[in-house]
Write a structure and sequence with these properties.
The protein has a single domain, classed as Protein of unknown function UPF0759 (TIM Barrel). An eight-stranded parallel beta barrel has the order 1-2-3-4-5-6-7-8. Helices cover 32% and strands 16% of the residues. β7, α8 and β8 form a beta-alpha-beta unit. The longest helix has 14 residues. The two termini are 26 Å apart. 38% of the residues are buried. It has ten helices and eight strands.
Length: 277
């Protein structure tokens, strides 16, 4: 198919040591990873900001080491999981991102709420507070609780200035998959893999995302993305990051959308089609 210029495909994070030897050259220095990543992708999701507040020096470094890469930023867990943030927390987070916010390479803030955050009047009030505090910036929201999978939620999300994150994940009890609705100014898709056995039962967090999409699954996901496209700027991020599986799937998805791509030999050798047979 002819390439659609405003569909952008990338990965949720880039600084993974276990990508060495598959996506990255084996001896690459961590400081060189982002520039190497940019050779293959034009968008990236920054996830470290969920665990620690962003530092201006780090964010400025991302911009200095790249030329065209654009960034979606996952907000810190104090805003989504702990939900007890102060005005100082908000100030610190936004100041840490200032260089990016002042550039033309910021995509949006990602608010990913846990499965324990269910739909209620109190939750809507909290979303309203978040929206007001991050007003003026593009923002998207990902719900993990299936209780948010209802039409009235989509109306609330859009009225509060969010775009809705569409999700692919294992179909396990209580987890919202999809809903494959275009809600808000942009489309935003996160693909977590389908590791049903390890979604809840895992020792290490990465085990949840240890999954390689097959070619047929990628074709199915492509059709789902097209079903919500509507000509909007559309961002698709692969979060099945273990050993670079997401990078391989993202590059294959770019090909399905008509882009010419080069796939690192390490990815091809490790995850090529024979492993799916």
């Amino acid at each position: 198919m002819k390439k659609l210029r405003n569909i952008h495909i990338g990965c949720s994070g880039f600084s993974y040591k276990d990508w060495k030897g598959t996506f990255y050259p084996s001896r690459i220095d961590q400081s060189e990873m982002i520039a190497y990543y940019e050779k293959f992708f034009d968008v990236v999701e920054i996830n470290y900001t969920f665990y620690t507040m962003p530092h201006p020096y780090t964010v400025e470094g991302f911009l200095e080491k790249t030329k065209r890469l654009r960034f979606a930023v996952k907000v810190n867990r104090v805003f989504t999981h702990e939900r007890n943030y102060s005005g100082e927390d908000l100030k610190r987070f936004l100041e840490g991102c200032k260089a990016l916010l002042d550039s033309n390479r910021f995509i949006c803030f990602l608010f990913q709420f846990p499965q324990s955050f269910g739909y209620s009047a109190e939750s809507v009030d909290y979303l309203r507070r978040i929206s007001e505090d991050f007003g003026g910036f593009q923002r998207v929201v990902e719900f993990r609780s299936r209780s948010f999978g209802r039409p009235e939620v989509y109306e609330v999300v859009e009225s509060l200035g969010f775009s809705l994150v569409n999700v692919d994940a294992p179909k396990v009890k209580g987890v919202l998959v999809g809903p494959w609705r275009s809600v808000g100014v942009i489309n935003y898709v996160r693909l977590h893999g389908r590791n049903r056995d390890r979604w809840h039962d895992h020792r290490e967090a990465f085990e949840r995302y240890d999954y390689l999409y097959s070619e047929e699954e990628l074709k199915g996901l492509k059709e789902k993305v097209l079903s919500i496209y509507q000509g909007k700027d559309t961002y698709v991020f692969f979060n099945n990051h273990y050993r670079g599986k997401g990078a391989y799937n993202a590059l294959r998805m770019k090909e399905l959308f008509g882009e010419r791509v080069s796939i690192p030999k390490g990815l091809t050798a490790t995850f090529s089609a024979p492993l799916w047979e």
